[in-house]
């Protein structure tokens, strides 16, 4: 998996010479429970956070680095806190 991430960087520098050799594709199953949940979210900011988290998880699962690990952590903790009664407004120390 780590080699894929390195190959992506090399691919970008060789793209002009050799074309697109190793294109990364993210497949989305529209029937998956998580994607259905994403589709049902009406708040635009919440939908963006949820979609970005799904994308970051897919990237990390494939061995890629994510752009902002601190933001990812913040989003995951926010989702976890929202799923536990009475913790959503708790202060993080």
Describe this structure in words.
It is a single chain. The protein is mainly α and 93 residues long. It has one domain. Helices cover 61% and strands 0% of the residues. The chain is built from four helices and no strands. The longest helix has 18 residues. It starts with a helix and ends in an 11-residue tail after the last helix. The model has no long low-confidence stretch (mean pLDDT 79).
Sheet with the most strands, sense and barrel status: none
Strand content: under 5%
The pLDDT mean sits at 79
Identify low-pLDDT runs.
none
Instruction: State the total count of DSSP E strands.
Output: 0
> What is Rg?
17 Å
Global structural class: mainly alpha
The percentage helix is: 55-70%
| Apparent shape | globular
Write down the domain tally. Answer: 1
Tally the helices: what do you get? 4
Give the ordered list of helices and strands.
Answer: HHHH
Distance between the termini: 34 Å
What is the compact description of this entry?
About 60% of the residues lie in helices and about 0% in strands. With about 90 residues, it is mainly α.
């Amino acid at each position: 998996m780590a080699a894929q991430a390195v190959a992506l960087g090399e691919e970008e520098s060789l793209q002009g010479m050799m074309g697109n050799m190793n294109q990364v594709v993210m497949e989305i199953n529209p029937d998956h429970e998580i994607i259905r949940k994403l589709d049902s979210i009406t708040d635009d900011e919440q939908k963006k956070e949820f979609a970005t988290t799904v994308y970051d998880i897919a990237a990390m699962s494939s061995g890629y680095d994510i752009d902002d690990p601190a933001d990812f952590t913040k989003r995951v903790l926010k989702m976890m806190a929202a799923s536990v009664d009475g913790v959503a407004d708790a202060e993080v120390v």
